[in-house]
Design brief:
58 residues; mainly alpha; 0% strand
């Protein structure tokens, strides 16, 4: 996947990705279901309507 060539280490890239990770985690925790965090990420990847409901929480 050529991850060694990623340029997110330079400049503000690492901080920007950390902010995006925190946003995603906050939205997952805001969701009221009792599923695990890993399960929520999997379901968001598999189910587009669930992903849309999570994005509506922003």
């Amino acid at each position: 996947m050529n991850e060694d060539q990623a340029r997110n280490r330079t400049g503000h890239g690492a901080h920007n990705l950390a902010v995006l990770r925190h946003l995603a985690l906050n939205v997952m925790q805001k969701d009221g279901t009792k599923e695990s965090l890993r399960g929520k990420f999997q379901q968001a990847g598999w189910n587009e309507s669930y992903l849309n409901s999570l994005l509506a929480l922003f």
